Amino acid sequence: MTEATPNSVTFPTIRENQFDPPEMLVRWAQETPIRPMTYADGHEGWLVTGFAAARAVLADPRFSARPELMHPPTSPHLVERQRIRRPGFFLRMDPPEHTRYRRLLTGQFTVRRMKQLEPWIETITAERLDAMELDGPPTDLVQSFALPIPSLVICELLGVPYADRSQFQWDSTALLNLDSTPGEAEAATANLMGYLLDLVRHKRAKPADDLIGGLLESGGLTDEELTGISMLLLVAGHETTANMIALGTFALLANPSQLAAVRDDPSVVDGAVEELLRYLTIAHLGPIRTALEDVELDGRLIKAGQSVMLALTAANRDQERFDAPGTLDVTRPSTGHLSFGHGVHQCLGQQLARTEMSIAYPALLRRFPGLRLAVPPEQVPMRTNMAVYGVDRLPVTW
Q: Is the per-residue pLDDT at 69 higher than 80?
């Protein structure tokens, strides 16, 4: 373990405002796009807060996503968890290994394919709204609306029984909880992997017309690889979008003029989705990349073996890239953001997430034009201890 170098910082996690990055992080971002950072295990690496620098790292093959090369940015509990390699878990692989898996899945998540799914997603959304209306207010929007929609969608696409959701949602939460011990995280992973391995073997014996069935038909993948791919898609497919729907609704409720625009003007919805993705940036701890060789970045020398944490919450608020970056403006002209990443690891399901959000937000706000918080804003519990930021619960009424 090395001692902290002069001017090295540790990553701040305390938020003064529910929708803004930590104040210290914003201030650092205004000073320089990259600075030395001391990681939780004592590693001396780097923190990137600038948009251009973060984008450059994500596009540069000299930076690796392999877990065994990384260091935990905050909790020491993450050391063991972060460095485990699993078959098929291509999020933590480099080309050409990553490319092999990615190519098998790309055709499932195209814009054209998502357009075909729109009527079905609209039906799922309407059914959840009907159920909310029947049950009456108040309700927790996470459980009644934000979580069921992406869970239903990804279960149907993969061929995972939605009836099993309580178990895989519980395990997903434990897996993403930064306070989970290595043992707790490993138990949750084992549960998920065991469940999905049984499902893969069942589908290999009795092929089905779903994404897992399609991967089986393509051949060349072991049951363990298919299990890793399925776990990645299942967890990411419901956790990220569920948090964006709930947190995005919270942000709109806090900004009535922005809410009214999304509710009343269909022409702003797609742009509003992009702005909420930028403004909220729920991937609030990373990603992390490690230099495979010495790399110069914005005048700084990143040495081989050093980890680089990309603070996307700060990069998406970069004043060099966005006008008034701390303001939520759903009519903002789209200039791109990094919420889905960039480069070879750019989010595979981004078009699906966009489709779900562009349907969910206006449908919710039009069905319940009087939608409002059922508790004071400061009493909404936030997911600050999770790898994906959001709200634990969103009590609303109408």
A: yes
**Token pair of 268, please?**
């702003």
In sequence order, the β-bridge partners of residue 34 are: 48
- Burial of 80 by CB count in 10 Å (0-12 exposed, 13-18 middle, 19+ buried)? middle
Task: Give the burial string for 82-120 (b: 16+ CB within 10 Å, else e).
Answer: beeebbbbbbbbbeeebeebbebbeebbeeeebeebeee
Separation in Å, CA 4 to CA 40, 98, 184, 376: 11, 34, 30, 41
pTM for this entry: 0.94
Secondary structure E strands in 203-314: 288-291, 295-297, 300-302, 307-310
For the chain, what percentages of helix, strand and coil (3-state, to nearest 5) are there? Answer: 55, 10, 35
Nearest to 292 by CA among 95, 83, 9: 95
Question: What values do phi and psi take at 307, rounded to 5?
Answer: -85, 150
- Cα distance between residue 66 and residue 82, in whole Å: 10
Q: Identify whether 17 is part of a domain.
A: no
Asked whether residue 154 is assigned to any structural domain, the reply reads yes
What is the domain count for the chain? 1
229: in domain: yes
Whether 27 is covered by a domain: the verdict is yes
d(CA 264, CA 390): 25
Q: Which H helix or E strand runs over 199?
A: helix 182-205
Tally Cβ neighbours within 10 Å of residue 8. Answer: 17
Name, in order, each residue with C-beta under 8 angstroms of 238's C-beta and a sequence gap of 6 or more. 147, 150, 151, 154, 155, 169, 172
Expressed as residue numbers, the domain containing 247 is 23-397
CATH number of residue 70's parent domain: 1.10.630.10
Tokens of 109: 């998540």
| Under 8 Å between Cβ of 387 and 172 | no
Q: What are phi and psi of 382, to 5 degrees?
A: -100, 155
Strand ranges inside the chain, DSSP E: 34-38, 44-48, 63-64, 139-140, 288-291, 295-297, 300-302, 307-310, 372-373, 395-397
Summarize pLDDT for 123-149 with one digit per residue, the tens. 999 999 999 999 999 999 999 999 999
